[in-house]
Amino acid sequence: MILSTLSVVNGVLERHWKEFKSSAISDTIIDLNFRTIEDSRELDRVLNRNTKSRRKHSDHLVPAWCVSGVDPLTGENTLEGVQVKPDTPSSDKKGKLQKYIGATGANTAPLFLNTGIENFWKAIIEDKSKPVLITEGAKKAGAGLALGIPTISIPGVTTCRKNGRLHYWLEAFAGFGRTFYLAFDADIIDKRPVQYALISLARDLSATGSKVMIITLPSLELKGMDDFIATKGGDEFKKLIDEASTIEEWKKELDEKRKAQEIEFDDEERKSRMSRAYKIISQGWGDSIRLNTLKKYIEFDNSRMDLDLLKLYIALEFDMDISKEDAHSIVMSIAKANAYNPVVEYLDDLEARFPSPDLSILNNLALRYFGTNDPLHNTYIKKSLIAAVSRARRPGEKAEDICVLVGEQGLRKSTFWKELFGADWFTDELSDSSEKDELMKLHYFWGIELAEIEHIYKKKDVSSFKKFLSNTVDPFRIPYDREIKEHPRACLLVATSNEQELLNDPTGSRRFFVVPVLKEIPIEELIRERDLIWAAANQLYQMGHQWWLTRAESAQQAEANKDYQTSDPWEEKVLSFIRGRDWVTTHDILFTALGIETGRQDIMSQKRVAGIMKINGWHKQRKWIDGHALQTWVRKVEKTSGSCGSCGSNQSAQGFEHDPHTKTYVDHVDHIEPDKVSFVTNEQFSDPHDPHTKTYVDHLEPSHSKNDPHDPHDPHTFQTFPEKNSVQHEPTEKPNTISSKKDFNFWLIDPTPLSLHIATHLGDIICTATPVATILNAAKMPGGYECLMTWQWPTGGQAQTTVGLTEAGDFEEGAKKIAKEWLKKQEPWQPQVNRDAMYGGELVKIVGRWQGKWQVELSSGRFQYVRANQLSQPKNP
């Protein structure tokens, strides 16, 4: 093959092919792994990136060559570890030139090139006697593989390891009997941060039982192993492998060279002593210094740095004396530039290891671990897990609910929370004090257990405890800071209790997710499944699942929490006394029901009575009694709002309860999140093409005689309904239910309402039809009735409209239609993957989600990430 006569060789531009061959890469390795990309759209897909401009792709990056490899565990092609080198390098936000580019938003991963040999990498994993070479860059890995040496490429010496944990692909190769050779550029001796990172990588590999050797390239002109192989040949490089140093030998040699060198300064440009110190320390320690934002301390080489000895460390390392305060300021500045959260790193690592986790593992956690098969309890656990991920990734997110495990002693409830969050990121030693040290504990851990929560709940004032749970930030001053700062919470509060009666808030306990523990918790199974559980919870969070209860779930919670409410010995006497009463005073209860004299009725006794009354549905209201305005307790009545008011009748419910022939319709509508009640009006649901719902209010010719047996009600009483005022009517007999009658002639005999119940997942929608006038205009609806149709919504509130009906089918069909439209209005539109949406006036397709943003495909075929508030519902979804 004569390259000079070809512009493209097997999908690779001629100049790119020459570049690969100059790095001593074999034709087979090039064909299987490298290619040229000239289409900017294709490059965007490979790099998972889009520009902010809707009309512009990464045109400035093409042409470019791209290299991708295989998954070493399966042998399948993957874009993990993909590298792209544009012909014209671009600059990053800091102005630094980027010769190589990786995928946007992806975790760094090693690159395993395809050798053309089936199961090549799996065989290397299984045979620990074969040495493995690790280098930086795809071309260097290709040169090593061309010599028959298993060579892995990593994006940089500081990558593919987090918080002392190797990338899981590298872990698969490590173990007793394995020897790793690290071959990095010859100029590494001049990059002290890289030297520290190389030592850390070697230490992590050695911790697995592997042996680590360092290959030293002798020439700065041939600084890369591919340059050396291409110039000196493979045999000479294999000699370097034979002469490789142990990590201890390399460190000793490094120390000797370092002592012989002097760090140069430009004294004319840098007069500040502190500035020179910053430069020296930054060059010397660099990325080895990091700020752990969870634990709020500085780490050096993944170990906590003792700041009390910081001045001494600097003197010994750099032979330089600076003040303790200057030393702290310099190191803190460097550490903040390398800040990280270990929990987020853990979740990111899970996301890389399990890109498509099994979400079904979260569907029965309550049953498998606690022995309860109530779906609500599993909902509690799932939402708590998502809330924990949310708090870790976005500190300060609202997560005021607390999951409480309730059961006998010895069931390992606290151990469950400890193993779930991890011992290093969990504590159960939070007291009920509001001192600074206790507040700081909230910001040192991911999971915090309130053990025996009933004791804390009883000691604290209910209002202050609820406020404590609801807080999203805590103001305090951490050590070495000069001022108080607000710190967003990154933790999730959980709890345990041995007591059945633990809730004592008379206004409600919506913040408590109480889960009964009915068996000993299998902790060993939890340890095995922990990573899979958090991977699934992280995936649900990334998909946008909410971690708070829906309105329907909240209603179930309120009922379930009654089993855990504290009881008061006065309650039985109080309830017996107020039975049958419409109102009562606190003094009446204390004096008459409980026999407490007026002089002994203190604040505590009044609060106990108030708690009993609130729990049982009474509320305070001022009433005029004998010319005096007194505070009384009255029964709480569910209020309806909107322009329609309320008829105050409950006869439809009575008809449903006692009449087995009432028809029920079930709408299978899932995952509706009910918003505020939408009240129908005539205009909303009047369809000129549908006679079943058409209104005739403007065309009626009713008889106004109240003595007319066919029109027993005055139609004018139904024409207006005062805002926010309920018109109370005397209860009537049980309403009729829909039967096989073909018309409404029976209303001539019995003018009571019809009733229809429509069962939905939000509760029953109750619809009634009440005759208010006969329709005498035979041309429109002969023999029909003008009826007041009323819908009572399960979420509260109601709606009314006046329609003309002739047959039972009209009522039945019209009621179902409007009920379905109401249900549809309860579902707020929200972005979802594979759903159409409007973006900037253009219809787009939602294809993915990443880091809180939605990826959409535009009509031009380009992909772009946008915020949720930039998307809206299509006009014709």
TrEMBL record:
InterPro entries: DUF3854, TOPRIM_DnaG/twinkle, VapE-like_dom. Residues 361-565 form the Virulence-associated protein E-like domain. Residues 686-716 have a biased composition (Basic and acidic residues). This is DNA primase. Residues 120-234 form the DUF3854 domain. Pfam families: DUF3854 (PF12965), VapE-like_dom (PF05272). Residues 684-738 are annotated as: Disordered.
